[in-house]
From TrEMBL:
Organism: Gigaspora margarita
Domain spans labelled Methyltransferase: 102-192
Keywords in alphabetical order: Methyltransferase, Transferase
Gene Ontology terms, MF aspect: methyltransferase activity
Keyword Nucleotidyltransferase: no
Name this polypeptide is given: S-adenosyl-L-methionine-dependent methyltransferase
GO biological process, one term: methylation
Record SUPFAM superfamilies: S-adenosyl-L-methionine-dependent methyltransferases
């Protein structure tokens, strides 16, 4: 899939060694309006999971199309509900009273930055994503930039006071994670805050059908070198940069199933949608015909009504840069 002219944006930004978030908002939004082309990838080509510069979870729309549910909005609402807010790093007063510059990495369609920009109108919010989607009306203090997060960010060192990233379904290799974390730390100002949220790939307290689906998906992802245990290693990857004063780790459980009211039902829909996107690969691994795989999904719905404590872990790591 395309990068929405991120290479041309990179060339333009390369002329400026230091990114000034205030000066760039109107020009950035104008460029995106003129240059952006809507991605029309369909889910029919998910037989192989290829993690190139233009294909990576949280960084593109390769399993979404214009007729699908807005999975980014669902992800945003799930995480906001589970964490009881949009962030936990204790920077609220500074965002409210000072002109802070905030970067949201892998911002999707910008749900997080739009909410944050309205709550903190004195600060400036930039989101980066390989394919941000159709342009939508946003507050004056926001911008969404088309950029592949696996390459060097087109911002100078020490550009942002607060860098945020969250990915409920992270599908990056370990080397890709190291590159992303390196770039996040690089563009964060000294004494600035970094906050990263990731979801897990394994379901706890689950039934046999869920276990089979999770195992099949994990094996498939690991065959493609995806780091499926990132919830366990994220803190170490951040710590090993030796760029943080300290790090704090928080863990939440995301319930799945209609018995958990709104958030459980939303996550059930989100998970089912993700699994369906791997339909051909998982059915092949499990030795199931398309019809048999569909029966498994029906069985999963019934199973979740029985196993009412099923959940996935979600981890948040945040800390202050040295």
């Amino acid at each position: 899939m395309g990068l929405c002219n991120s290479k041309s944006l990179a060339r333009k930004a390369a002329a400026k060694q230091v990114f000034n978030p205030v000066d760039s908002y109107q020009s950035t939004r104008s460029m995106l309006h003129d240059d952006h082309k809507k991605n029309k990838s369909k889910i029919s080509n998910v037989r192989e999971l290829k993690r190139s510069n233009t294909e990576n979870s949280c960084n593109d729309d390769n399993i979404y199309d214009e007729n699908s549910i807005d999975s980014y909005e669902i992800e945003h609402q799930i995480l906001k509900d589970v964490w009881k807010g949009n962030f936990c790093s204790g920077i609220s007063e500074e965002l409210q009273n000072e002109q802070k510059h905030v970067l949201d990495v892998a911002c999707g369609r910008g749900h997080w930055i739009r909410e944050m920009s309205k709550e903190f109108p004195n600060s400036y919010f930039t989101g980066i994503h390989a394919s941000p989607g159709p342009k939508v009306e946003s507050p004056h203090n926001t911008a969404i930039v088309a950029m592949d997060i696996l390459n060097r960010f087109t911002y100078g060192d020490d550009s942002f006071d607060y860098v945020h990233m969250r990915c409920l379904d992270p599908n990056f290799t370990e080397n890709q994670w190291k590159k992303i974390i390196h770039e996040i730390v690089r563009v964060t100002k000294p004494q600035g805050i970094v906050e990263i949220v990731v979801g897990g790939h394994e379901c706890e307290d689950s039934g046999p059908t869920m276990k089979k689906l999770c195992t099949a998906r994990r094996v498939f992802l690991e065959t493609n070198d995806i780091k499926t245990d990132i919830i366990n290693d994220l803190e170490n990857l951040m710590f090993n940069t030796k760029k943080f004063v300290s790090l704090e780790k928080q863990i939440r459980k995301i319930p799945i199933g209609k018995s958990f009211e709104k958030v459980g039902e939303m996550f059930h829909n989100y998970f089912s949608y993700i699994i369906e996107s791997y339909h051909e690969s998982l059915s092949s691994y499990l030795g199931k015909s398309p019809e048999e795989f569909n029966e498994m999904m029906v069985s999963l719905n019934e199973e979740l009504d029985k196993f009412k404590n099923s959940n996935f872990q979600c981890v948040r790591i945040f800390g202050k840069k040295i």
